[in-house]
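Supplementary Methods S3. Complex input for the iron/sulfur cluster-bound model.
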Amino acid sequence: MLQITLTRHSQGKSSCYNAALLRGRTTLKETDMTFIVGDNCIKCKHTDCVEVCPVDCFYEGPNFLVIHPDECIDCALCEPECPVDAIFAEDEIPVGQEVFLELNAELADVWPNITAQKEAPADAEEWDGVENKLQYLER
Ligand code: SF4
Ligand code: SF4
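Predicted complex, serialized as structure tokens:
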């Protein structure tokens, strides 16, 4: 079996080649770490992040995206792509957003997979930076 280690500590543009090899292999998981989507994605949802994920582990709800923790390979490619800085490594979740670790896992199990970018909500820019958007989360 092909063994490729792809972690955020070794990631970079050169990892894109290996990442492409992995596309579609959602069972590959070589790290216990995950990235999560946090509060500022709610009502922003630009979906830039899904285009770069080598294992297609984003899941989409009505106004929020989540990452499946069992599928995320900790490559960090998505983090800089988010225009509203809503993606965090599991060990770098901002204080007050800890609940999103559990929430990503819970919702990734029930929401559909998303693999292609789509248009952001018309009012996405107005919601960028608004605090405590969890109350607006639609399931
Ligand atoms: S790019 Fe950021 S705001 Fe857009 S869907 Fe992904 S996590 Fe949410
Ligand atoms: S969710 Fe982000 S960190 Fe996790 S595998 Fe996809 S691109 Fe990499």
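Confidence is low (pLDDT under 50) at residues 1-5, 9-21, 23-27. The first strand starts at residue 35 and ends at 37.
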